[in-house]
Amino acid sequence: xxxxxxxxxxxxxxxxxxxxxxxxxxxxxxxxxxxxxxxxxxxxxxxxxxxxxxxxxxxxxxxxxxxxxxxxxxxxxxxxxxxxxxxxxxxxxxxxxxxxxxxxxxxxxxxxxxxxxxxxxxxxxxxxxxxxxxxxxxxxxxxxxxxxxxxxxxxxxxxxxxxxxxxxxxxxxxxxxxxxxxxxxxxxxxxxxxxxxxxxxxxxxxxxxxxxxxxxxxxxxxxxxxxxxxxxxxxxxxxxxxxxxxxxxxxxxxxxxxxxxxxxxxxxxxxxxxxxxxxxxxxxxxxxxxxxx
Amino acid sequence: xxxxxxxxxxxxxxxxxxxxxxxxxxxxxxxxxxxxxxxxxxxxxxxxxxxxxxxxxxxxxxxxxxxxxxxxxxxxxxxxxxxxxxxxxxxxxxxxxxxxxxxxxxxxxxxxxxxxxxxxxxxxxxxxxxxxxxxxxxxxxxxxxxxxxxxxxxxxxxxxxxxxxxxxxxxxxxxxxxxxxxxxxxxxxxxxxxxxxxxxxxxxxxxxxxxxxxxxxxxxxxxxxxxxxxxxxxxxxxxxxxxxxxxxxxxxxxxxxxxxxxxxxxxxxxxxxxxxxxxxxxxxxxxxxxxxx
Lengths: 293, 293
Description:
The structure is a homodimer of 293-residue chains.
Chain A: E1 3-7, H1 11-23, E2 27-32, H2 36-46, H3 54-60, E3 63-66, H4 71-79, E4 92-95, H5 101-113, E5 117-123, H6 127-132, E6 135-140, H7 143-148, H8 150-156, E7 157-164, H9 168-196, H10 201-209, H11 216-227, H12 236-252, H13 258-272
Parallel strand pairs in A: 1-2, 1-3, 3-4, 4-5, 6-7
Antiparallel strand pairs in A: 5-6
Helix pairs in contact in A: 4-5, 9-11, 9-12, 9-13, 10-11, 12-13
């Protein structure tokens, strides 16, 4: 059985590691985080080590999962000084963060140059699915590398989909999040206006659910927007980032997507107001009268 | 059994009349349309008459359904010269068009002044549901008037909901359409970008359907956007109008809803380009490379 390490043990990465170790019996040989106390705490919980350097993480494992915050963090761990690719020939990296497709391609090429395999595994799921091994995983990279790691990816997921060459999974993921974010903004505007008009919000949500206004985010975020329960599952800061990735992709192919731009601006507005840590449902703080401003 | 007339026999009104007459056995005593040939044709089909004046329509019936295009058309038939309210004491009007809440209130008050009853019946459904009597109807007006006409409204609908005083159903309906239109614009942007990136659109639609990007409009409009099948069920011109009603409501309560504004601008852009007669799915003509512009 392969020795597995995790780099980036926030809510998602830590729960993936817990699932593989506690539920599936995999050997977790190292965990690492820029927030060292998180790594030390998880290492104690899982009976493993939290090395101080990325080189030690690579040395300790055959298969390294990374779940970092953004493109800059990804470049730091793979392309910065003392990075994961040192002495990484024969190792496999599976990168799970939602990043720009271009960064996945950069890291893939850097890995190839030193004999390491690199996959992307875009996740369209949240924290509880990570813990339960029921993630929705979209894989980009070489198909043979995907196949040789399919077992552990299946153990993490309930739905595993090969999307194509490196970067393609990130493209699909950015589209999912772009559409999800717009639908979320739409719902926040609809419920905010309903509230301002004095309508019964339970009635309005029920009508939405039975008509052309229905959406997955109505199920996941509708109550939270009304109740102002913005405990973070998917942060507004991440929403701003992902809508921005989609906007950059659109610009790269010469497309103008004004509804995504308006949605991105709303999520960036949240970050600017210090609301970026709220769940994406927190966008309702901008659209209900008497909240936010 | 009440004698029933219809004013405005476009696709929706004509099919409601067909259902009541052909499937339920109601007596349709007059039909009227500004496009007189439509009224004459339907009158022949249903064995009724197509009077030349609105006064004759009112005289011929106890219960008059109206399904007109917009606020101006509504004011013309109820407040203009030779309107439906002449000698209308004791008659009941059920107004089914998607209009601004304010116009419903104006017509209600004008009716009360001459002893006529006025309900609004906002429809969150399309043509086939009109023909089959499976509309989603939201009623505004006096509850006693609703109750005394409940049987025929049930015969037209599969879901009948009393929303409150006159205007409240139009408010809920405008919210439904605002959210639906934004979700439609979101889908068109997502699929247009996916296409420009060279992704497999069947795969992308399936991923959307299984993730936070899922929505009712993905089911109803996803294939049509890809196939450019924009046969009109709900026109882009109507979408522009309804997003505008929601924008006016938002302005009236001092709310800024930027994602609705961006969506409204897209649908108004379609109208300006002569694409207003396309189904709302036609918004994809603006977001797929090489279409539209």
